[in-house]
Amino acid sequence: MTKRHEWTIRLTALLVVLLALGAAARAADFKKGAYSVTAGGAKWTINFGDNNKLTFTRDGEIAAEGTYKVTGDELEVADERGPIACGGEQKTGKYKWKLEEKELTLTKVEDPCEGRAHALTSHVWVRE
């Protein structure tokens, strides 16, 4: 093995490690808690709770419950129950997230549930 080949392998390994650490640090930057927005005359709140539990409410009434998972700058949500929960093949959606100060912005990566995608991406959510 040539010295150049060795350096290429070492640099590639270092890059992989740095990318993995960056993704882990980014996920650690995600803040659990409640984020809300007022839209259509109602207060909508998303609560990212412990044990990856997600609750979506409208004026304090549960609209959907499910789970969430943060990996790097990606947020995956999965509805489980509730009057506006998406089910079947529409159960899970993926989004990119960005948190600046108290403002959470979600951008759709893929989500077959258009209602959820619209609700999550149409507004900037503010941390309570």
How would you characterize the overall build of this protein?
The protein has two domains: 1-30; 31-127, Lipocalin (Beta Barrel). It has an eight-stranded antiparallel beta barrel. The chain is of the alpha+beta class. Helix content is 27%, strand content 46%. The termini are far apart. It is built from two helices and eight strands, in the order αβββββββαβ.
Short key terms for the protein model shown above:
128 residues, alpha+beta, Lipocalin, 8-stranded antiparallel barrel, 2 helices
CATH class identity of the largest domain: Mainly Beta
Tally of alpha and pi helices: 2
User: What portion of residues belong to β-strands?
Assistant: over 45%
Mean pLDDT: 85
Please give the order of strands in the largest beta sheet. 1-2-3-4-5-6-7-8
> What CATH architecture of the largest domain would you give?
Beta Barrel
Share of helix, binned: 25-40%
End-to-end gap: 57 Å
| CATH topology name of the largest domain | Lipocalin
Radius of gyration: 18 Å
Broad structural category:
alpha+beta
Strand segment tally: 8
